[in-house]
Amino acid sequence: MLTQHTVRSFDRELDYLAKKIAEMGDHACSIVERSVKAIVQDDYRLADELIAEDVILDKAEREIDEKAILVIARRQPMAVDLREIIGTIRISSDLERVGDMGKNIAKRAAVIAGTRQPSSFYSSLEAFVALALRQLNEVLDAYAKHSLDRINAVRERDGTIDAMYTSLFRELLTYMVKDSHNITACTHLLFCTKNIERIGDHATNIAETAHYVITGSYPLLERPKGDHTYEVGMRKEVS
Amino acid sequence: MNPRLKIKMCGSNVKVFYAQKEILHGIHLDIPENRVTALIGPSGCGKSTFLRCLNRMNDTIEGARVTGQILLDEEDIYDPSVDVVELRSRVGMVFQKPNPFPKSIYENVAYGPRIHGLAKSRVDLDEIIEQSLLKAGLFHEVKDRLHDAGTSLSGGQQQRLCIARAIAVRPEVILMDEPCSALDPIATARIEELIDDLRRNYTITIVTHSMQQAARVSQFTAMFHMGNLVEVGTTKTIFTSPGEQRTQDYITGRFG
User: Fold this and answer.
1) Residue B157 counted as domain residue
2) Residues of B in Cβ contact (< 8 Å) with A218
3) CA nearest A11 in B: which residue?
4) What is the pTM of this model?
5) Is the ipTM of this complex over 0.90?
């Protein structure tokens, strides 16, 4: 573990940035979690609240950017400090995007209020979002503790999210085929699942940034991919 | 290190003793040609001592003894047959505080070429002086007052005069010991710009306490600590992801 800087206020500035990232992460997870709850429980009031809440993450991202630029100007950081500050800027931008995904899900929850799908779909959706958020929480915690093994494990697990996404994609298509009145609601739900899949991608981005911050090099580009939705409907597809 | 780079100077197992105390513990360091190599490390780490080995400046210190080998173009500079005056014309030096001679600007630059017999005539000498001042980026500021005292110039100009003086004897290597530590940021920027120009024709080794300066001007960085070479590598690597904890601690301001 790193020792303290000779200038203690530098440590305090870095600690502040780390604390802000943790806060942003908690808030982004909470928005996403509740946005899916709004869909599952058909709660448009909750959806409206969440749409208004997104601005908090936008503000936090700006605050982190400003603080990070100030630290760079004031300290001219080098090596791990420089990587950490650049990493903070990138991660906060990923978390802000996660917040946007949550907000988008909430907007769609408000639009499809009153429509219902089979209850098995909602339990799959809840399991799906839980998996994506577990990835996000895990990577943020592993980053805070500089645990490289756990960070790499997050990146390896993204394939599971992609596979679940493919399965939900098919499920929604089936509902649409069965009843064309369902197409509007299911299309919105399709975008919601896509948003959740994107959250998994942001968790992977954060894992890659964290890897760079800790080691000074990026992980290899190849990793397992489980998103096969682009094949769904292809003539040669075997299901 | 890139194998295509020619090694201009090469230190092997260089040890320095002051009286009986060993203060450099066997340094191995290559100085590549036409590159700037920065020597960094906390005060007392031995970086200036090593720099001074490269043109045998330590010979002038009573009780100092150097062992090991330092090659300049594959010739041992500590070989008894080496003429130290000639060596120092090939390996010039610029010091921390600008130290012009108490003579005119012209005479400051003329001194070296005269004692080394580099100019055949007055016209020749004038040409060397103009070229040296031009290369040091000072000529246009002083061309109308070449016979004013060197000490009448500003600190930054004096340091560039010292660089012109070093260049005038056509060195191959220029050693700089914290050349900007007595200068303001503008004068520092001009010297840094100059270092970048000079490396096309010279090999430069610079000792600096400014991490940012080392990062800006050098292509290679060597980190010293307590008389040892901790790590050497490309400047890019040293300042973004150094391999050694002591380097990391030093450049990020975490040292004791």
Assistant:
1) no
2) none
3) B254
4) 0.85
5) no
User: Residue B200 belongs to what domain range?
Assistant: 7-99+174-251
Q: Which residue in chain B has the smallest CA separation from A86?
A: B240
The answer to whether residue A236 scores a pLDDT higher than 90 is no
Q: Does B118 touch chain A (CB under 8 A)?
A: no
CA dist., res. B156 & res. B244, Å (int): 35
Of A224-228, B66-70, B148-152, the least confident = A224-228
State both tokens at B141. 């500021």
Is residue B146 included in any domain, yes or no?
A: no
What's the structural domain count of chain B?
Answer: 1
pLDDT digits (tens, 9 = 90+) for B91-126: 999 999 999 999 999 999 999 999 989 999 999 999
Tokens 């400014």, residue located: B210
Residues B11 and B27 sit within 8 Å (Cβ to Cβ): yes
- Give the one of A10, A215, A217 whose C-beta lies nearest to B253's C-beta: A10
State pLDDT tens for residues A51-93.
999 899 999 999 999 999 999 999 999 999 999 999 999 999 9
Interchain contact A73–B (C-beta under 8 A): no
Q: Is A181 exposed, middle or buried (0-12, 13-18, 19+ CB in 10 A)?
A: exposed
Q: Is there a contact between B241 and A79 if contact means CB atoms under 8 Å apart?
A: yes
Residues in chain A within 8 Å Cβ distance of B240: 78-79, 82-83, 216
Please list every residue in chain B whose beta carbon sits closer than 8 Å to the beta carbon of residue A80: 241, 248, 252
Q: Do B252 and A78 touch (CB under 8 A)?
A: yes
Structure tokens at A204: 């992977």
Mutate to test the interface with A, among B221, B252, B255 (most CBs of A within 10 A): B252
Torsion, Cα B234 B36 B3 A80, to 10 degrees, reads 0
B154 at interface of A, judged by CB pairs closer than 8 A: no
The domains located in chain A, with CATH, are 8-231 (1.20.58.220)
Report the CATH number at residue B86.
Answer: 3.40.50.300
In a domain, B107, yes or no: no
Handedness of CA B211, B213, B214, B215 (dihedral sign): positive
Q: Could you tell me which of B211, B254, B248, B223 has the C-alpha nearest to residue A216?
A: B248
